[in-house]
Amino acid sequence: MSTIGDTKVDDIKAETWASRLGDFWRDFAESKVAVVSLLVIAAIIFVAIFAPLLSPQDPYDLARLDLFDSRLRPGTVGSGGYVHVLGTDAAGRDLLSAIFYGLRISLMIGLLAGLLALVIGMTIGLVAAYRGGRVEALIMRVVDLQLSMPAILLALVLTAMLGQGLWQLVTALVVAQYAYFARTIHGSASAERDKDYIEAAIATPLPAHIILLRHLLPNSLPPLIVVATVQVASAIALEATLSFLGLGLPLTQPSLGALIANGFQYLLSGRFWISVYPGIALVITIVSINLVADQVRHVLNPRRGQ
Amino acid sequence: MLGFFIQRVFQAVIVVVVMSILVFLGVYAIGNPIDVMIDPAATQQIRDTLIRQYGFDRPLWEQYFVFVGNVLQGDFGQSFVYRVPVLDLIFSRLPATFELALGAMLIASVIGIPLGIWAGYRPRAFSSKAIMALSILGFSLPTFWVGLLLVMTFAVQLHWLPSGGRGPTSDILGIPLSFVTPAGWSYIILPAFNLALFNLGLLIRLARAGTLEAMSSDYVRFARAQGLKESKVVGLHVLKNIAIPIVTVFGLEFGSTLAFAVVTETIFNWPGVGKLIIDSIMVLDRPVMVAYLILVVLLFVIINLVVDLLYGVLDPRIRARRAA
Asked: Which residues are CB-contacts of B58 (< 8 A; sequence separation ≥ 6)?
């Protein structure tokens, strides 16, 4: 059971948010790998936000791309007069700039899909745990069925059905992922639901949505933090996979996955950099998020230290 | 028990029916199949005849019932592109996918289980920590990216293995298979390893957790007190203890491995069902998509049903709780 659930209500009030955050950070910082990963994520977010200022070139401005610059080796000086540190792709895009902009798109899609899946999954899971009975049975049957299928397959099917575009892609990712959130919060909320303070709250004339939002939700939340982090990473990976399969966003604004797919045909002729560098950026992003999530899971684990 | 059984089967049938409606509607909603099938230069008369012939002029619900009627007779329609019955098309690609998936499962267990047992047997050793790091990578690295690296390293740089395709196959009982000849081996090894990575990570973790648990149990302590050799203790007692959960997960993961094959087959140009479905999505070959999706739904529902029923047989509490 969660530590917060076992703590007396008075204790929770006595501890300020700041002191609890401080405790959390101290435990988190025990792992140097996790701290470094967190710094890497911060750097990636920084690059993604300030991509237009950091990039030597606007990779989306087709008028500025020169086909004479296509497939230049890393370190070559192009017609723009500056060094293409990571080379250029087939359309003559500077790869470094393309990666910065690609990170932007990949992160945006990952966060958007993760957040939406969180809200939808959380609502469904909470309602199921609170209502119980047939509603719960039905909802959780659907969720379980969905969890038994691989997310990649669902996302693949949905993008195929919905067609290309940002919102279609996000919808596909959300449908493929909300079930993880629903399952997790349902587990912790069902355990909380049976505790006395919820029973007491139900006995008062408080409306259901207040009990759900003010009492049940905050106390069921901790396990969800880990799932949310992991799911952002897997949304990014899923999006990259879909783009690689040609089912992602149109190529005018390539995400990391699309960049990799784009370079795949040149890989066989030895022009490795077009695929490999965007891939490295993708892998660093996914692995750092996963490492942070791993440490958060470790810190939040109530059985830790026993 | 019979009531539980009937209830589960009934639920599974409802799921299949609902999913078939969703799949049919969803696939119908994309694009205009007529544009794919009919030569744009064809006259209006030819178009009308073909539209009537394929039933596109009838209401959607009527098309669905015609479709279901045909499916129940094993007729999924004809591929728009290949002009052959869809079921024949999918079945002709199935052996390649099954061979790849089985190869991947084999690689995952042959490498994953011993590594996991070692990591559980010596949890503090450096090698064990390296093994666990490997399993995290197996989980978190995107399959397609690893596949790409494999192609780059072993095919493009080292020229050791072919970069894709299935190579020569030999027929066994009329089924074309790759693993019979050494040349076939050289084609299957890279994609199979690529597909194995996720399960490899999973098996390492499972085997490690099971071994850790078994090592601290009384029966291992007694086996040691008896003077059994360590190899016997691990090979006999530990292995037996971890076998059941591994076999369970293995069964469940087979479906996912078939699904993940979509990615691996695309990278390695492996002529299986996954490659077929991606190609079909690209050209909007509607009957192939519908048939593939319904077969996949059927596969997963059956796997779930079997697992559910087995749990019901093994544990009366589940039976009681779920029937309530």
From this structure: B66
Say how far apart CA A253 and CA A97 lie, in whole Å: 12
Q: Taking chain A, what is the end-to-end CA distance rounded to the nearest angstrom?
A: 14
Structure confidence by residue, pLDDT tens digits, A125-159:
888 888 878 888 888 888 887 887 778 888 887 88
Residue A286 lies inside a defined structural domain of this protein: yes
DSSP at B78: B
Per CATH, which fold does B93-323 belong to?
A: MetI-like fold (1.10.3720)
Instruction: Tell me if A85 is assigned to some domain.
Output: no
Q: Could you count the other beta carbons within 10 Å of the beta carbon of residue B42? A: 13
The SS3 of residue A109 is helix
* CATH number of the structural domain spanning residue A171: 1.10.3720.10
Asked if B201 and B135 touch (Cβ cutoff 8 Å), the reply is yes
Q: Identify which of A92-96, A169-173, A264-268, A272-276 has the greatest average pLDDT.
A: A169-173
Q: Are B249 and B242 in contact (CB under 8 A)?
A: no
Domain ranges in chain B?
A: 2-72, 93-323
Positive or negative: CA dihedral B301, B307, B310, B314: negative
A162: which chain B residues are within 8 Å (Cβ-Cβ)? Answer: 30
Length of chain B: 324
Give the E-state strand segments of B152-254 in sequence order.
Answer: 170-172, 175-177
pTM to 2 decimal places: 0.80
What are the chain A neighbours of B15 within 8 Å (beta carbons)? 145
Q: How confident is the model at residue B324 (pLDDT cuts 50, 70, 90)?
A: very low
Q: Which of A99, A152, A132 is nearest to A260 (CA)?
A: A99
- Rounded Cα distance between A219 and A207, Å, is 18
Residue B167 backbone zone (phi > 0: left; psi -120 to 50: alpha; other: beta): left
Residue B107 has pLDDT above 60, yes or no: yes
Q: Average pLDDT, whole number, for chain A?
A: 79
Q: Which among B145, B156, B266 is the nearest to A279, CB-wise?
A: B145
Q: Which tokens belong to B205?
A: 């973790």
* Cβ–Cβ gap A290/B151 under 8 Å: no
CA distance A172 to B64: 24
| Beta strands at A76-77 and B175-177: parallel, antiparallel or unpaired | unpaired
Residue-number span of the structural domain to which A159 is assigned:
27-62+94-300
| Residue A13 placed within a domain | no
pLDDT in tens, B137-162: 887 788 888 888 888 888 777 778 77
Pull the structure tokens for residue B305: 């049903």
Closest partner residue to B259 among A150, A246, A294, by Cβ? A150
Structural domain tally of chain A? 1
Kindly determine whether residue B30 and residue A283, on different chains, have CB atoms separated by under 8 Å. Answer: no
At A120 the pLDDT is 93
Measure the CA–CA gap between B117 and B123, rounded to whole angstroms.
Answer: 10
